[in-house]
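Lecture notes, unit on protein representations.

Consider one protein chain, 116 amino acids long.
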Amino acid sequence: MTTQLTQSQKIAQINDMFRENLPMFMMIGQAVITRGIANLPEADRMEILSMVQAFDNFTEDNDPYGEHDFGSFKLNGQTIFWKFDYYDSSMEYGSEDPADAENTKRILTIMLACEY
């Protein structure tokens, strides 16, 4: 017996695969960092990327729809945010169906909380 995934579960599954396996999944999107992250020492940037990839602290407060599309954590006293946005395959409009990995491009943005 197979279990049908909900829309949110499909989105969460794709988001987790993308985030946890950078850069292997770059064909379905891209990851970007803000100027604040770019200006940090390289060791901090590498640690932040590792922490984004390993993030699994999803709660009702930070993930109310169960899509694993946002996370935050602290590193060296700074709060770091990461979030997904979804676009159509041409990157011109928002995605009509973020659960459709073939027709949705994901943008994973990693930023300092103060840049949000």
